[in-house]
């Protein structure tokens, strides 16, 4: 999974999947939501109303855009209530997003982290948590399951849109930290999942 941070808005993203984030109980919608809803002819609002989507944490609604915008799939992600939002909730939301995107078999996933401005959590920490969640949420140990491994469709690239240069730099720092820490966790998980015949004392030393 490759992570890229680009200067610009979600309108310019060329990813096959696009994630939009909503707060629970908030009537005001983000500029990302408003643009997306307009681009798909108001279909987004209609679907949310029909599905009674409230924006609860870890709840994700997925639907096809039918060629109205570049991304083929939209992922509407609930962030829960602002007052309950913390780094743990953040990681759970993005872990669930990663699983949904992987199930949908999108090759690339794009989103903005502008919702961070409505929290007390620094953008770099938000970017780190998002990276952690996506990598660890899609983790599977398939080293000895070749048939299942061949069927797996990995998310090849994640693209984060940042509107201004300071946000770009903060997001890059957070993504780098997230990659380092999550890859260390993946390494530890791999060791745990290896058979005892592999992880001998000599091997671990």
Short description:
This protein is an alpha/beta fold.
What does this structure look like?
By secondary structure, the protein is an alpha/beta fold. 44% of the residues lie in helices and 17% in strands. It has 7 helices and 6 strands, in the order E-E-H-H-E-E-H-E-H-H-E-H-H. A 6-stranded mixed β-sheet has the order 1-6-5-2-4-3, covered by helices on one side. Helix 3 (87-104) crosses helix 4 and helix 4 (123-137) runs parallel beside helix 6 (165-193). The chain is globular, with a radius of gyration of 18 Å. The mean pLDDT is 90.
What's the arrangement of strands in the largest beta sheet? 1-6-5-2-4-3
Number of helices: 7
Largest sheet: 6 strands, mixed
Radius of gyration: 18 Å
What attributes characterize this protein structure?
205 residues, alpha/beta, six-stranded mixed sheet, 7 helices, 44% helix, globular
Question: How does the SSE layout of this entry go?
Answer:
Elements: E1 2-7, E2 17-22, H1 31-39, H2 43-51, E3 60-64, E4 73-78, H3 87-104, E5 108-112, H4 123-137, H5 146-151, E6 157-162, H6 165-193, H7 201-204
Parallel strand pairs: 1-6, 2-4, 2-5, 5-6
Antiparallel strand pairs: 3-4
Helix pairs in contact: 3-4, 4-6
């Amino acid at each position: 999974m490759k992570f890229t941070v680009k200067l610009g808005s979600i309108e310019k993203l060329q990813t096959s999947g696009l994630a939009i984030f909503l707060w629970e109980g908030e009537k005001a919608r983000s500029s990302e939501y408003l643009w997306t809803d307009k681009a798909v002819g108001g279909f987004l609002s209609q679907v949310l109303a029909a599905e009674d989507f409230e924006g609860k944490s870890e709840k994700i609604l997925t639907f096809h855009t039918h060629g109205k915008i570049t991304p083929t799939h939209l992922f509407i992600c609930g962030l829960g209530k602002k007052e309950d939002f913390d780094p743990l909730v953040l990681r759970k939301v993005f872990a669930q997003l990663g699983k949904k995107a992987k199930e949908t078999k999108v090759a690339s996933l794009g989103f903005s982290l502008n919702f961070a401005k409505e929290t007390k959590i620094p953008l770099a920490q938000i970017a780190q948590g998002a990276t952690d969640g996506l990598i660890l949420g899609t983790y599977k140990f398939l080293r000895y399951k070749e048939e299942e491994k061949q069927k797996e469709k990995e998310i090849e690239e994640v693209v984060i849109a940042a509107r201004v240069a300071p946000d770009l730099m903060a997001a890059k720092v957070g993504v780098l930290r997230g990659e380092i820490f999550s890859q260390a966790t993946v390494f530890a998980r791999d060791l745990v999942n290896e058979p005892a015949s592999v992880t001998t004392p000599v091997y671990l030393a």
